[in-house]
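Page 42, continued from yesterday. The earlier attempt failed because a stray header line got pasted into the input along with the sequence. Redoing it now with the clean sequence only.
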Amino acid sequence: MKIKIVSLLLVLNACICYSQTPVLPVEQPEAQTENLWFQGENSWLEGKGEVLLSPYVSHYYTDTKRDENGNKSDFDNNGYYENYTYKLYFSTALISHKLSLIGTLPYVKSTYSDDYTLDENSEFGDMELGVTMHLKNMGKYHYLTGSFTTIIPAYSNDENPFTGFGKVGTELRVGISGNSEWMGINDNFHELSLGVKKFYDGGPLQFKLYGTQGYRITEKFVVLGSLEVLLSRGDDFTVSQDNIQVTTDFDYIKATLNLGYEFNPRFALYAGGFTDLYDRNVSIGRGWQIFSVIKL
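This time it went through. C-alpha cells are written below.
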C-alpha cells in the first residue's frame, strides 16, 4: 500500500506540473489580475481594498472504518457518524498582491448513533487566523505563495461527539498557483500545495498534500476537481467510532469534484461531492458540499 500511495503522489505531482506553463519572463502580480477567474482558499492574493468571502456548507457521513492494517469493517451495533459543517472563509489584502490576512470560522453539528446510543453536539470548530504572502513569480502565469496560520479551538469537548482535538495548533504551507497558457489563460486554474500542521500539548503532527485543477467548460460553468492526501501522526492508534474527529494516528486520500456557475466576475456558486479513496486507521467518509466565492 505504501508503494501505491507514493505512486499516487508522483502521478498527482506530474499532472499538476504538466499543466503548468513553462517559465516565461517575469511579470508584476498586478498585471495578472485580469486572469483571476477563480478565487479559492489561499489561491490568489487580493488587491488593495479587496475582500474575498467564501461561505461553505458540507455534509459528511460514515458507517465503516479501516484499522491500522487496512482491514475494513462496519461500525459496531449499526452505528454511524455524520456532521454538518458551516464555514466562512475570508481574505483581505494587507499589502496589495503581496500580503493578505486570512481566516476561517466554522460551526459543526455532529451526530453519532447506534442501536443503543444517540449523541448530538453543536458548537464552533477550530477557528483559523493567519497570513498568506506572495513569495516569487514563477514565470508569467504562476507564482509561489506561503502561508502561516494559527488554529484556535472554539469548543469545549465536554459532550459527545467531540468536535476536534481541543488543542491550539499552527500550520505552515507553501504552494504554486497559476493558469496554463495552452489551456486558455482565462479558462483554467490549478494549485499544488504542501502543508505541515502541528497541534501542541500532545496533539498530532500532520502533513497535507493538496492539488486542484479547474477548467471553464462554458462561458459560465466551471468544473473543479481536487485530490487531498493527509498523513497524521500521534499517540492514538485506535479508531474511536463514536469520536472519529479525535483519532490522531491515521492517513487518508480524498477526492472532490465540484461544478460551479459564475454569475458575474464577483460571485460564483459551486456544488459537488467528495469521497475517500484510501484510509488507514480512520473512518471511511463521503459527502457533499456547497460553497460560494464572493469578491467585494
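Notes: The longest strand covers residues 80-95.
Reminder to self: strip header lines before submitting.
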